[in-house]
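Data availability (excerpt). The following record was deposited with the supplementary files.
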Amino acid sequence: ALETQVAMITPAPMPVIMPELYISFDPAMPSSRTVAPGRTNVEFVRLEFAAVGETVIRGLSISRKGGTDQDLQEVSLFDGSTQLSSSKRMDDGKTHFDGLNWVIPAYTVKTLTVKATISGTAAVGHEIRLGINSGKDINTDTNLDGLLFPIMGNAMTVR
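Predicted structure:
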């Protein structure tokens, strides 16, 4: 009698790549509104950072959409009422915050608020949005695969 042997080939399981950090809009995100030239500490965007494992954000770049660099005198980052770094100026639509070392403990959500001072010479009618343009703008060892970018706040119109 002839026996036939059948080999069952089981494919190796595909690894599921999940981000270790999730970024979403804070429920208290500022809505679009008008802002006067010279106004200080205007909240542009509030982002919730939720970490699966302890995450250290060493640096972060904030991008501008709309308006011009000259419309913003300076940009600042806050964790609650704590300013994370000295204020920075926009350069070619971006500003970089290096040396943050902002720690988000495992299984914790922290809110990052991006504020800016509107220049006294800001052009009336300009609509300005601030946010994170891509994963490359976040300096961390944490896996960001699967996150969708850009993450931009609502437009603030200079009036």
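Summary of structural features: The radius of gyration is 21 Å.
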